[in-house]
Amino acid sequence: MNILEASSKLYGWFSSKDSFCIPRDAPKILGEDEISKDHLAAIDCALKEFENLGIISLSEIGKVKIWVLKKGFASFDQSVKLSPDICSSLAQIINGFCEVVKNEADKADPKNITDKEIKNLIHICTTLIEMQSSKKGE
């Protein structure tokens, strides 16, 4: 496991939990069979990166380290810069899907890509993955 993979697992964790303690919580996100010093090191590095980004703070109670969110995880925003080509492609994908499902309300404006369009793109991808998974199950 690398730090990026550990960060991804921690993103999922902190979306519903306010603190993380490696001995207590690592088995919950890794699974009992996945616990190794290398995996724990990756989680520790990812936690330190979260701390450097100002997302969590470290508290030591006795000898136990507990990483605690500074505020609700949903309140942390990220800024993303997108090129005009990416915005155009994103809008084309969303608008094509909207045409297929006959939904004019959610069409995207390539000059104004927002959180809503990213959520719609996630919905499109999830729909396609579910469709493909159901085909495999037939």
Notes on the structure:
By secondary structure, this protein is mostly helical. The chain folds into 2 domains: 3-75, Arc Repressor Mutant, subunit A (Orthogonal Bundle), CATH 1.10.10; 84-136. The chain has helices at 3-14, 22-30, 37-52, 84-100, 115-136, and strands spanning 19-20, 56-61, 64-69. Strands 1-3-2 form a 3-stranded antiparallel β-sheet. The mean pLDDT is 91.
Instruction: Give the CA-based shape.
Output: elongated
Please give the largest β-sheet: 3 strands, antiparallel
Q: What's the CATH topology label of the largest domain?
A: Arc Repressor Mutant, subunit A
Task: Please mark out the parts with pLDDT under 50 across 5 or more consecutive residues, or reply none.
Answer: none
In the CATH hierarchy, what is the architecture of the largest domain at level 2? Orthogonal Bundle
Helicity, in percent?
A: 55-70%
What's the arrangement of strands in the largest beta sheet? 1-3-2
Span between N and C termini?
Answer: 33 Å
Summed up, the helix count is 5
Mean pLDDT: 91
Radius of gyration: 20 Å
Return the string of H and E elements.
HEHHEEHH
The tally of structural domains comes to: 2
Can you count the beta strands? 3
Could you name the CATH class of the largest domain?
A: Mainly Alpha
Main structural class: mainly alpha
As a percent range, the share of strand residues is 5-15%
List keywords for this structure.
Arc Repressor Mutant, subunit A, 138 residues, 3 strands, 10% strand, mainly alpha, elongated, three-stranded antiparallel β-sheet, single chain, 2 domains
Write the layout of secondary structure elements.
Layout lengths: L2 H12 L4 E2 L1 H9 L6 H16 L3 E6 L2 E6 L14 H17 L14 H22 L2
